[in-house]
């Protein structure tokens, strides 16, 4: 890891100011960024830790019933604090990485990184969440723009994520056997105005909505509604852990399991 | 160089470090506390697990500066002042929970975090919690048994396997 300047502001305003510097990079929990820096795949001149910003931590319920999670909230904290309010989201958070990783990694860090195999992007997209930054609010549908690519501008910080709470939801993750990331993960969320299905791990374009399944499930919320539906293997990730055809097949399987688990 | 100060096993500790210094390196190289091991250095293996403000973290994937002002517990702080082992350490010894011993500091610290939040875990819960702790001797069976024993549960059924 190359040496860097280090700042640890205690407010969002100070962090935004610090990130205006040349080659400045925000540091969330560091569970992806620090390994990346060790490999010298990233070498920011200044690292701005968001870990000391109290106003970015915690979970609360908004007036409209949405669950608002501070961008600096760890996976472990979400798993605990969201357990009653949004159990499927809490369950997802409680199965990211391992316990020690969950004590450091944050929801804002995960969404800002938008790893194509990360869990959180599927929850945000399936829930139609709103990504709140220091500058604006971004709908999840506009936020995810491809593998490791988001709508965030340079120096923009995710301060909060608002999740409308669904009537029923479930996340099914098929583990990549070595990394334990999602080989394919599917988040299904049923709202009064329709069902949303988001898939992570599978596509070379990162997380995506399976709109055909959404239409079928909105008409008939049961696994049978998915019979005959499939996603094309074109554009799916293919590696030694699974071909694109295998991943495409898993999308259907995991969606069915998620619907079944919604009960 | 930047000065960093924290409490390690109840005692004040500080040192001048490069900003890029990892907590694991601060403990081992600045403080000379080599009980915390660095195995993979990629946050996979868990040999470097310590507690920061009561929570298990991988010290190879946290900057020392991020622990400024924190309460840090390491394997060196687990035994009593007279050297007598704590319940988890003693159970690892009694049930052969270590072979080469390299992963043991992280295993003990993870076990301690687990038993704090779940005092009587099932075997499945122990195995799930240890997802981020690798034993290259593959001695998991006795590690799980030791943790069950440390939680005061009967392990005779496991012993028969």
**Count of DSSP strands of chain A:** 12
Question: Globular, elongated, flat, extended or rod-shaped: what is the shape of chain B?
Answer: elongated
Q: How would you classify the quaternary structure?
A: heterodimer
Largest interface: A-B, 26 and 28 residues
Q: Over all CA atoms, what is the radius of gyration of chain B? A: 16 Å
Broad shape of chain A: globular
The first-to-last residue Cα distance of chain B is 54 Å
Q: Please identify, by name, the CATH architecture of the largest domain in chain A.
A: 2-Layer Sandwich
CATH class of the largest domain in chain B: Alpha Beta
How large is the count of helical segments of chain B? 6
Residue-averaged pLDDT of chain A = 97
Query: Which percent band covers the strand fraction of chain B?
Result: 15-25%
Low confidence ranges of chain B: none
Radius of gyration of chain A: 18 Å
How would you characterize the largest beta sheet of chain B?
Answer: 5 strands, mixed
The CATH class of the largest domain in chain A is Alpha Beta
- Integer count of domains of chain A: 3
Structural class of chain A: alpha+beta
Q: What level of helicity do the residues of chain B show?
A: 25-40%
Task: Tell me about this structure.
- The complex is a heterodimer of chains A (263) and B (161).
- In chain A, helix 3 (75-81) packs antiparallel against helix 4 (87-93).
- A five-stranded antiparallel β-sheet of chain A has the order 4-5-8-6-7. Chain A has a four-stranded antiparallel β-sheet with strand order 9-10-11-12, sandwiched between helices.
- With 263 residues, chain A is of the alpha+beta class.
- In chain A, a hairpin with a 7-residue loop joins strand 11 and strand 12.
- Helix content of chain A is 29%, strand content 22%.
- The mean pLDDT of chain A is 97.
- Chain A has three domains: 5-49, 2-Layer Sandwich (Uridine Diphospho-n-acetylenolpyruvylglucosamine Reductase, domain 2), CATH 3.30.43; 54-163, Uridine Diphospho-n-acetylenolpyruvylglucosamine Reductase, domain 3; 168-262, Enolase-like, domain 1.
- With 161 residues, chain B is α+β, with helices and mostly antiparallel strands.
- Chain B has two domains: 2-77, Ubiquitin-like (UB roll) (Roll), CATH 3.10.20; 87-154, DNA polymerase, domain 1 (Orthogonal Bundle), CATH 1.10.150.120.
- In chain B, 32% of the residues lie in helices and 16% in strands.
- Chain B has six helices and five strands.
- Chain B has a five-stranded mixed β-sheet, sandwiched between helices.
- In chain B, strand 3 (49-52) and strand 4 form a beta hairpin.
- The termini of chain B are far apart.
- Chains A and B meet through helix 2 and helix 5 of A and strand 4 and helix 3 of B.
């Amino acid at each position: 890891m190359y040496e860097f300047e280090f700042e640890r502001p205690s407010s969002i305003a100070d962090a935004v100011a610090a990130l205006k510097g040349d080659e400045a990079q925000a540091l969330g929990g560091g569970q992806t960024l620090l390994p990346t820096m060790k490999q010298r795949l990233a070498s920011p001149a200044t690292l701005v830790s968001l870990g000391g910003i109290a106003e970015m931590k915690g979970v609360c319920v908004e007036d409209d019933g949405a669950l608002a999670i501070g961008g600096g909230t760890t996976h472990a904290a979400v798993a605990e604090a969201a357990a009653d309010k949004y159990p499927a989201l809490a369950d997802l958070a409680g199965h990211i990485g391992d316990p020690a990783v969950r004590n450091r990694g944050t929801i804002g860090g995960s969404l800002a990184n938008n790893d194509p195999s990360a869990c959180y992007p599927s929850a945000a997209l399936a829930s139609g969440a709103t990504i709140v930054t220091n500058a604006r609010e971004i709908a999840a549908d506009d936020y995810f723009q491809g593998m490791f690519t988001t709508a965030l501008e340079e120096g923009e910080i995710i301060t909060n994520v608002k999740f409308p709470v669904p009537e029923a939801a479930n996340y099914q993750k098929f583990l990549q056997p070595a990394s334990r990331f999602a080989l394919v993960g599917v988040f299904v969320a049923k709202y009064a105005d329709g069902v949303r299905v988001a898939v992570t791990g599978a596509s070379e374009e990162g997380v995506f909505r399976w709109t055909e399944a959404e239409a079928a499930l909105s008409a008939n919320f049961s696994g049978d509604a998915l019979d005959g539906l499939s996603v094309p293997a074109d554009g799916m990730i293919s590696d030694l852990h699974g071909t694109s055809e295998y991943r495409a097949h898993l999308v259907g399987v995991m969606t069915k399991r998620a619907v079944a688990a919604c009960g | 160089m930047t000065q960093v100060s924290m409490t390690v096993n109840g005692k004040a500790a500080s040192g001048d470090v490069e900003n890029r210094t990892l907590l694991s390196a601060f403990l081992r190289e600045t403080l000379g506390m080599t009980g915390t091991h660095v195995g993979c250095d990629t946050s996979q293996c868990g040999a470097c697990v310590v507690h920061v403000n009561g929570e298990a973290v991988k010290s190879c994937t946290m900057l020392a500066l991020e622990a400024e002002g924190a309460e840090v517990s390491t394997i060196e702080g687990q035994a009593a002042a007279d050297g007598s082992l704590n319940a988890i350490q003693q159970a690892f010894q009694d049930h052969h929970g270590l072979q080469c011993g390299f992963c043991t500091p992280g295993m003990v610290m993870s076990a301690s975090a687990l038993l704090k939040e779940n005092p009587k875990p099932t075997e499945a819960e122990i195995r799930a919690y240890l997802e981020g702790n690798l034993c290259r001797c593959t001695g998991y069976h006795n590690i799980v048994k030791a943790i069950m024993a440390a939680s005061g549960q009967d392990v005779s059924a496991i012993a028969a396997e």
